[in-house]
Amino acid sequence: MRKQQILIVDDEEVNRVILKGVFQDEYEIIEAANGEEATAQLEKEHDIVLILLDVVMPRMNGFGVLGYMQEHDLLEKIPVILITGETVIDTDDQAYSYGVADVMHKPFYPHIVKRRGKNVIELYQNKHHMEERLKEQEEEIRAQEKKIRESNEFMIDALSSVVEFRSLETGEHIRRIKYFTRIMLKYLMKYFPKYGLTPVQVDEIARAAALHDIGKIGIPDAILLKPGRLTPEEFEIMKTHTTIGCDILEKFRENQTDEFYQYCYDICRHHHERWDGNGYPDHLAGDEIPISAQIVAIADVYDALVSPRVYKSAYANNIAYDMIMNGECGQFSPDVLECFALAKEDFFNIVEVIKMFSFS
Asked: Which among 169, 204, 318, 350 has the fewest CB atoms less than 10 Å away?
């Protein structure tokens, strides 16, 4: 097996000979008489575990080598012990500012150089192994998180599909709500930093949006499948799908993170609340309504308008847009309406694409 390499850089041959004698039993020794030779060796050698570097040399000094290593991100990978005849404190300070592992002064004692050199090699290799192990652990955690996320995604799709099969008005509604929600959230994240949304939260809220109507599982067929408008009494029963959905979600709570469960709960319960307090079931108003539910609410209303129902035809995109902006479908927050305006063309495009292709 090939030995690990130590690069000795010194214009004095006698120093190179002494240092080579210290390490050659355990390491392959590479020599350079100046900084230019040293950088050339760094370009072609790939198993260097330590550099013993002189400062004062012709054709690029030691700090020139350190500058080269810094520029090529090598100082984090290969430790450097600066061995110098300089006794000026500024030299040491400059060396440490580059990130060298140690500074030794000439004349040096070979056994001390050997001990410090091996200690530095061991320290860097342990650090490297620890970083590799942490990277492996991070990849393992990500793989586990991906598996859990895919499992959750399957359960979400399965539960929401139950509603699709039961409700004549749902169809691709749930899939579109996820698209619309994600688009709105991206505009909210970009233009309204006060909400503090992150890409991870955007993803979780968009996934949670699929469960907004899960409570319709508990609505009687006579009401859910009624081919016409509901009576006031029937509508009161239909409104309970918000709280029924929360009862269903509670049974799955232990398998979800607290944050994801809260998004699911807020959206399920509050996606019919309105900014002026005239929504249901809790008559929340203004910022009392979670922002996740506010976003899903406008997406839900828009999709209902542009989709055909047994009791109405689909509205054109621009008409549906104007109805929402004019307050004909309930009051929404100014921030959410601004995001909706920004997302207008995106919404229109999604509807037109869905008309052209089947996503079932």
From this structure: 318
